[in-house]
């Protein structure tokens, strides 16, 4: 299985989460919906707007995401900095737990 270096971008106020494939950073892409309208694979397109078959990233509302059966099975491992490579579903489940805890901690009164 191929391993891709990845980074995340998360806007907690609107729960917009993107897992980016660092090797394809800055490439043009089109969203390919799965599950809900806010859940997308971001597919690379070339200069002719043709899909290349490569995945630029994954976008979803991570705090509320529960459609794990709709998540595409990819033949890729995703590796965040200083972490071990994981399949997409395992990585997203881990990040969801972490971000939910962070969000609850931030929302708790001091």
Question: Top keywords for this entry?
Answer:
seven-stranded mixed β-sheet, about 110 residues, 1 helix, alpha+beta, 7 strands
Can you offer a commentary on this structure?
With 110 residues, this protein is α+β, with helices and mostly antiparallel strands. The chain has one domain. Helix content is 18%, strand content 44%. Strands 3-4-5-2-1-6-7 form a 7-stranded mixed beta sheet. A hairpin with a 6-residue loop joins strand 6 and strand 7. It is globular and about 45 Å long. The mean pLDDT is 92.
How many strands, which pairing sense, and closed or not: the largest β-sheet? 7 strands, mixed
Shape: globular
Distance between the termini: 45 Å
Question: Could you say which structural class the secondary elements and strand pairing correspond to?
Answer: alpha+beta
The H/E string reads EEEEEEEH
Poorly predicted spans: none
Portion in beta strands:
35-45%
Number of strands: 7
Q: What is the overall number of helices?
A: 1
Number of domains: 1
- Helix proportion: 10-25%
């Amino acid at each position: 299985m191929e391993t891709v270096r990845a980074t995340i971008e998360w806007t907690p106020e609107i729960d917009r989460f993107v897992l980016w494939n660092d090797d394809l950073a800055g490439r043009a892409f089109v969203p390919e919906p799965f599950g809900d309208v806010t859940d997308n694979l971001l597919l690379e397109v070339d200069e002719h707007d043709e899909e290349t078959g490569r995945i630029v990233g994954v976008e979803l509302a991570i705090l509320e995401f529960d459609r794990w059966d709709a998540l595409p099975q990819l033949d890729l491992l995703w590796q965040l900095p200083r972490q071990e490579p994981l399949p997409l579903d395992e990585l997203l489940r881990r990040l969801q737990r972490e971000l939910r805890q962070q969000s609850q901690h931030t929302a708790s009164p001091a």
